[in-house]
Write a structure and sequence with these properties.
By secondary structure, the chain is an alpha+beta fold. The chain has one domain. The protein has helices at residues 2-14, 19-68; strands at 77-81, 86-90, 94-95, 126-133, 136-150, 156-167, 170-172, 175-177, 182-189. Strands 3, 4, 5, 6 and 9 form a five-stranded antiparallel sheet that branches. It has a two-stranded antiparallel sheet with strand order 1-2. Strand 4 and strand 5 form a beta hairpin.
Length: 190
């Protein structure tokens, strides 16, 4: 019986954590929690950026499809509605200037040139498209260019349509966010 009690006492002295071990474990756990919190914050910000990029692509796609719905031999002005007003879109050849020398990574020759002021774009080939969601209005600069493709006899039987949408730089909580423009192209006709 005495031997049994001595064994139990010997084991109880070796069990448990010391105060220093607990302190180190809490520091490690706290550091891991701060890292996880930082990753969640970055994820939320990136999600918002991706939402803006997707909206830019959707707006460019809408304008592109509306222009593509018009026959290439029919040069007319159509209307598109954003959440505030109806805006005019010209479908005849002409439009915004294109990039001749890329300025930033991802920009390609033939993309719409946003370094040009809005006022420098021919009337009917640029609009400020406004989206409204949850009481927030976000403005996108949308520009397009239509180049004729002459096939036989000099008549324009097809058009190359280039549309780009750029979210205006926004300031939220003192930080400026910027997304590169989204550019889409299609050939109408043929």
């Amino acid at each position: 019986m005495i031997k049994r009690m001595q064994r139990v006492r010997g084991k109880t002295g070796d069990q448990g954590f010391t105060l220093i071990e607990l302190l180190i474990a809490m520091i490690v756990l706290g550091t891991a929690m701060l890292g996880a919190l930082a990753m969640i914050t970055v994820g939320i910000k990136r999600n918002n950026s991706l939402r803006m990029d997707t909206t830019s692509a959707n707006i460019a796609q809408t304008v592109l499809e509306d222009i593509a719905a018009i026959q290439p031999t029919n040069d007319t002005t159509i209307s598109i509605n954003d959440c505030i007003q109806a805006q005019s879109i010209k479908t005849n050849p002409g439009g915004a200037a294109v990039v001749t020398a890329p300025n930033w990574p991802g920009q390609k020759l033939g993309d719409i040139d946003f370094s040009q002021a809005k006022g420098a774009v021919a009337a009917g080939y640029q609009m400020d498209y406004v989206t409204c969601a949850n009481g927030v209005q976000i403005t996108y600069d949308v520009r397009w260019r239509i180049d004729p493709v002459a096939v036989g006899g000099g008549k324009n039987w097809a058009k190359l349509v280039t549309v780009a949408a750029l979210q205006q730089a926004t300031v939220q909580n003192g930080a400026i966010s910027f997304s590169p423009p989204v550019t889409l192209r299609t050939v109408v006709g043929m």
